[in-house]
Design brief:
Structural class: alpha+beta
Order of helices and strands: EHEEHHE
Largest sheet: 4 strands, antiparallel
Helix content: 25-40%
Radius of gyration: 16 Å
Length: 118
């Protein structure tokens, strides 16, 4: 499974209308792009753990989209609904990170941590 992970902080001066437009563009992408298998979006939770103070940027929001494979991710990235979302997104964020990961279920993913034998 490929996970497209987006961490972001909107600009402080972002209007309610711009926030709504971003949410609507994201909703359109979720509805129109069939290669998205699962999508979760939410706000950062602070609970007093020490690692919270180590972060250099407070990414207030996260979006995690899941795809069957890289072909599904590419179909998403190339879809016109994503192009519309991406153009809105780049206008509204102050800071953002976007990463793609090949994730395995449970302990199967731990193999990526262990160097292959030569």
């Amino acid at each position: 499974m490929i996970a497209h992970v987006v961490l972001f902080r909107p600009r402080g001066d972002l209007s309610p209308a711009a926030r709504t437009a971003l949410a609507e563009a994201f909703e359109t992408a979720l509805r129109e792009i069939p290669s998205i298998r699962r999508a979760r979006v939410g706000m950062r939770v602070l609970h007093g753990c020490a690692y919270e103070t180590l972060m250099h940027v407070d990414y207030q929001y996260a979006a995690v989209l899941e795809f069957d494979d890289t072909a599904g991710l590419r179909a998403y990235l190339e879809h016109p609904a994503h192009q519309q979302l991406a153009s809105r997104f780049s206008d509204v964020f102050e800071h953002a990170l976007m990463y793609d990961f090949d994730l395995k279920e449970g302990t199967a993913g731990l193999a990526a941590l262990v160097p292959a034998a030569h």
